Amino acid sequence: LQAHEELRAKRLSEDDRKPVSEDRFHGKVVERAKGFAWVQLAPDAVLPDRVREKIREMHAQRPFGTACAVDGDTSNIVPAWFFDVEEAGLNLQVGVEVSMQLYCDKRSVGGCRLSSASAPPPAPAATRSEAEAP
Q: Phi/psi zone of residue 99: left (φ > 0), alpha (ψ -120 to 50 degrees), beta?
């Protein structure tokens, strides 16, 4: 857990993440890789053109050293790092349905603040920290 937090802090500071929006998107894990999973967004996901283009560029450039092995259109498949999972016990196995927010950074578009699709959405970060305080 501590290693995940350290990696997350490092990635957030180095990659200049910016949220796409406050909206949550549903998707399904279609493949696992080292440290992350590829998540296919639901067909009804409405993304800005700039985000779809960044996803296409990401798949062409392979910034994570591996490509998603799903055949066909990958313009709605994004990486989700294991350290971005917020629901305790959620394991990003192939077939698991998730709810998440999206971010853009220097390398890609990805999923963050992941929870299972059936779980209520996590509280905003400030509220979560305040709620966890003694």
A: beta
* CA neighbor of 41 nearest in space, from 70, 76, 67, 91: 76
- Structure pTM? 0.79
Torsion, Cα of 89, 95, 97, 98 (10° steps): 60
Rounded CA separation 102/67 (Å): 19
Query: Of 89, 92, 133, 94, whose CA–CA distance to 112 is shortest?
Result: 92
- 90 and 124 in contact (C-beta within 8 Å)? no
Q: What pLDDT, on a 0 to 100 scale, did the predictor assign at position 13?
A: 65
What pLDDT score does 128 carry? 43
- Spatial CA neighbour of 40 closest among 68, 78, 66, 91: 78
Is the Cα torsion angle 48, 43, 77, 103 positive or negative in sign? Answer: positive
CA angle 128, 85, 119 (to 5 degrees): 70
5: left (phi over 0), alpha (psi -120 to 50) or beta: alpha
